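In response to the reviewer comment on reproducibility (Comment 2.3), we provide here a single inverse folding case reported in full, input and output, so that an independent group could reproduce the run without further information from us. The structure tokens appear first.
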């Protein structure tokens, strides 16, 4: 046990793995390290279930409606950015599913430059441009057939209406 009185709080994120006709939908986004590739992904908001979060993030980053079909897995990675004295551990809940057509007139989230459909070989060849090592790991797990039912995640009603303790 650490002597530090502050509780460790990993950043919880959600990600969408979307495959269509042998290509995967990725986003090219601005980061402190320059333009990088990522699955449509982002932080889970307070009072939001992981399913709600991944649908929201996919819509914001791709301008497409995402329909989750399965949970791929729960992933963890640590990222240190020494220039900013950041040391963050991410817990990523990754889902696979399908998307509709791009919604005309809908703009992409701030920092997202464009969306790209890439083959797995193109994604592997651009590994140095991945925002996280989890980008390819989630796709590899998808290709390996890993799937968990969506009801593997239980959401207690208290998420939306917190229990009051006297």
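Designed residues, in position order:
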């Amino acid at each position: 046990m650490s002597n530090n009185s502050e509780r460790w709080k990993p950043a919880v994120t959600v990600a969408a793995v979307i495959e269509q006709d042998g290509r995967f939908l990725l986003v090219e986004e601005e980061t402190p390290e320059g333009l990088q590739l990522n699955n449509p992904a982002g932080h889970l908001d307070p009072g939001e279930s992981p399913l709600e979060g991944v649908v929201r993030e996919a819509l914001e980053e791709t301008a497409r409606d995402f329909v989750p079909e399965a949970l791929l897995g729960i992933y963890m990675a640590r990222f240190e950015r020494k220039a900013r004295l950041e040391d963050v551990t991410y817990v990523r809940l990754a889902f696979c599913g399908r998307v509709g057509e791009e919604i005309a007139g809908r703009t992409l989230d701030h920092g997202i430059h464009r969306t790209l459909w890439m083959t797995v070989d193109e994604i592997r060849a651009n590994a140095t441009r991945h925002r996280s090592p989890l980008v390819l790991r989630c796709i590899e797990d998808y290709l390996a057939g890993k799937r968990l039912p969506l009801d593997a995640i239980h959401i207690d009603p208290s998420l939306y209406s917190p229990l009051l303790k006297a």
